[in-house]
Structures are given as structure tokens and as C-alpha cells.
Design brief:
- Belongs to the tRNA pseudouridine synthase TruA family.
- It is found in: Nucleus.
- It holds the Pfam family PseudoU_synth_1.
- Strands 1, 2, 3, 4, 5, 6, 7, 8, 9 and 10 form a 10-stranded mixed β-sheet that branches.
- Helices cover 36% and strands 19% of the residues.
- Helix 2 runs antiparallel to helix 3.
- By secondary structure, it is α+β, with helices and mostly antiparallel strands.
């Protein structure tokens, strides 16, 4: 049956049927140790046996490939002690405990299982390629059991064994996000636009892509987050790719998807990068604001809604080169899971973005706030300062 494909790896190792090497002697030792007990488990796998098995199962460092629809959540990262803000990790940790992968006290103190998320997605943001690293007990049918305790809009799509010191945040070389938006966001402010009827023309799409490509390279993005000052070295970020794809129509409304790949991103950075391009294309801001925003002065950069943002994938090129083909570990690539990822997007992410846009008009409402932004004031102040300093 098509239970998740990756269940064959570590789960099978515990059941003593693995064909994949995960550390020669260790496997033999575990097969001898667990062999007869596992047979008994298969015959009468009642609750107690399952509990015994999870206690006997060795703890190993793994990564989980996660997909989730972020609507209604306050981001990925758990805020221990503030239960009114529900996060994706609250639901994940609860499922890990209930399925027997981790002891209950590890759920309370996540450091005990060496838990690390690759990206801390913001409130309302979704993912199809989130990676978390942690130590779990490799119980049978591990993915199926975790997913049984998760809501349908959060899925674990894959699992791989990794090196003991692996940390999904530190070992990640780059992250790719997508942002799906209705194309009427790019209609010029002086044109009276009917949202359902609007279609993006080639010239406007070319201009959008020309502006997005300006972000490539290393820039000082202090104006694209609320957390950094202009001289903070960590505000300098490296963007590898950024472009907008061909528009497509869903339920009579035209949408397009912007993809951006960067080494790492700060809070709200992508939403502000897109927000500024929209403001320029709509005619609220001059193109020169883009260059100016990388200078030291404070520039008012609008932040596009979180709804359309999706963490697509995270990249581990250096790790894969070093450990991906060492005979013990697999490269952290998810080609076998791509079908499941595409299906999850179609079932849970795109419908949420489309329906929320139609019902709550998050993009249309946000666009109506653009006129209150002041894109020029700081430039005038700078000219005045320059005259004074002369």
C-alpha cells in the first residue's frame, strides 16, 4: 500500500528487514537484540507491546520533511508557556509524544531531543519543504503513526537518518520560498481594475521580473525587517534567484507565483521585498526607492500579506557532498516525495490561498493601504542634511 515511501527506511531497520546500510555492525547488533521480540509484536501488537517496543527502540538522529498549511497558526516555532498562540510545532510535538517516538518529558523540553527547525515560518505562512532535525525512537511504521496524530493540513512526508551532530538550521545552505498572489496586485493605481477580470500583460510581467532581479546578490536589507539597524552586519543577505512565473487562472481569478532563493531570510524580509516591488509597479513609489532602501537611511517599505508565502524547499548542498554518499547516510534530497508535495499543495495550500483571497480579500485590503506609505520623506531629509553638511 502507498503508506509514505520513506517509512521503508528507518522503520524497517527496527523490524529487522532493512536492505539499506545504516551502519554495518550496529544493524546486526540491533537485529539480534530485537529479532524475536519483533516477531512477537507482529503477531499480537496490542498497546502494551507497542509501548515496550518504543522503549526498546534506539533513539537516532533523523530529519523529517514537513508540509503544512499555516493559516490559523502563529508560525512554526513553539512558544512554550503561551498556549493561546497555537503553532505548528505544538501540533507536531503532541503527535511525536502520542505516537511513542519521543518520551513525554522531551515534549516539554525540546532540547532533550535536540530539536531544530530549519526555518521559523511567520504567522499564516505555509510550507511544503520544511525540515526539522531531532532524535526519535525508530518505531515501526513511524511516519504513519505520527501522521495519525496530526491534523490533515500538517503532514510528515519523509524521514531520513542523518549524522549525530546534524542541525537542520546550521547545515542549511539556502532556502527557496514561493509567494502566490493575484495578478491584479500589479495593476497601475490610476487604472480602475475589476479584480476578477484583470489579466497581467507581458510588459508588466517583464517589468516585475526586471525589478525582482535587482534583489539578486548581497544587499543590506535592514529596511526589510523591523529587527535590524542599518549597521548591523547580519542585515546583509545574499539572494541567489528571484523571479515571477507565468500567470494562471484559478476560479476565474488570475494568480502568479514569485520564487526566491536565498542563503537565509530575516523576519518579514520576503514579504517586504515583494511589497516594495508591488508599490513601484503600481506607481506609488519610484524605482529609485529600491536602491535607496539598501543605504543607511530609514525607508518606509510596505509588507505584503503573509497568506501567499510558502517555504518550498531547503538546500543542504555542503552536507550532501560530504555525507550524502558515504554509504551510511542518504543525501537530503526528496525526489521520491515530489509527487506527495505537489498533491499536498493542490489539496491544502493553493485552495486556502485562493479561498481566503476571495473571502477575506487580504491582498485587495492591503493594496488599499499603500497610499498611506510615504516613500519620499527620507529622501528629502537626506537632501536637506547634505546641504547642511556642505
Amino acid at each position: 500500500p502507498q503508506v509514505l515511501a520513506m517509512a521503508e527506511g528507518p522503520g524497517a531497520a527496527v523490524a529487522g528487514q532493512t536492505k539499506r546500510p545504516i551502519g554495518g555492525a550496529e544493524v546486526v547488533e540491533r537485529l539480534e537484540e530485537n529479532g524475536h521480540q519483533n516477531k512477537r509484536l507482529k503477531i499480537g501488537a496490542d498497546e502494551e507491546d507497542a509501548e515496550d517496543q518504543s522503549k526498546r527502540s534506539p533513539k537516532r538522529k533523523v530529519v523529517l520533511l514537513m508540509a503544512y498549511s499555516g493559516k490559523g497558526y502563529h508560525g512554526m516555532q513553539r512558544n512554550v508557556g503561551s498556549s493561546q498562540f497555537r503553532t505548528i510545532e505544538d501540533d507536531l510535538v503532541s503527535a511525536l509524544v502520542q505516537s511513542g517516538c519521543i518520551p513525554e518529558n522531551h515534549g516539554e523540553d525540546m532540547k532533550k531531543m535536540s530539536f531544530q527547525r530549519c526555518a521559523r515560518t511567520d504567522k499564516g505562512v505555509s510550507a511544503v519543504g520544511q525540515i526539522v532535525s531531532l532524535k526519535v525512537r525508530l518505531i515501526d511504521d513511524i511516519l504513519e503513526k505520527i501522521n495519525n496524530h496530526l491534523p490533515s493540513h500538517i503532514r510528515i512526508l519523509g524521514l531520513k537518518r542523518v549524522t549525530g551532530g546534524f542541525n537542520s538550521k546550521n547545515k542549511c545552505d539556502a532556502r527557496t520560498y514561493s509567494y502566490m498572489l493575484p495578478t491584479f496586485a500589479f495593476a497601475h493605481k490610476d487604472h480602475d481594475v475589476q479584480e476578477e477580470v484583470y489579466r497581467l500583460d507581458k510588459d508588466t510581467l517583464d517589468r516585475v521580473n526586471k525589478l525582482l532581479s535587482c534583489y539578486k546578490g548581497t544587499h543590506n536589507f535592514h529596511n526589510f525587517t523591523s529587527q535590524k539597524g542599518p549597521r548591523d552586519p547580519s542585515a546583509r543577505r545574499y539572494i541567489m534567484e528571484m523571479s515571477c512565473g507565468q500567470p494562471f487562472v484559478r476560479e476565474n481569478m488570475e494568480f502568479a507565483v514569485i520564487q526566491v532563493k536565498g542563503q537565509s531570510f530575516m523576519m518579514h524580509q520576503i514579504r517586504k521585498m515583494i511589497g516594495l516591488v508591488i508599490a513601484i509597479v503600481k506607481g506609488y513609489a519610484a524605482e529609485s526607492v529600491l536602491e535607496r532602501s539598501w543605504g543607511e537611511e530609514k525607508v518606509d517599505v510596505p509588507k505584503a500579506p503573509g497568506l501567499g508565502l510558502v517555504l518550498e524547499r531547503v538546500h543542504f548542498e555542503k552536507y550532501n557532498r560530504r555525507f550524502g554518499n558515504d554509504g551510511l547516510h542518504e543525501p537530503l534530497e526528496w525526489t521520491q516525495e515530489e509527487e506527495k508535495i505537489a498533491l499536498f499543495k493542490e489539496q491544502y495550500i493553493y485552495p486556502t490561498i485562493i479561498n481566503t483571497e476571495r473571502e477575506e480579500k487580504s491582498m485587495a485590503n492591503w493594496l488599499s493601504t499603500l497610499p498611506i506609505h510615504d516613500f519620499n520623506s527620507s529622501a528629502v531629509e537626506v537632501q536637506a542634511n547634505n546641504k547642511n553638511s556642505k
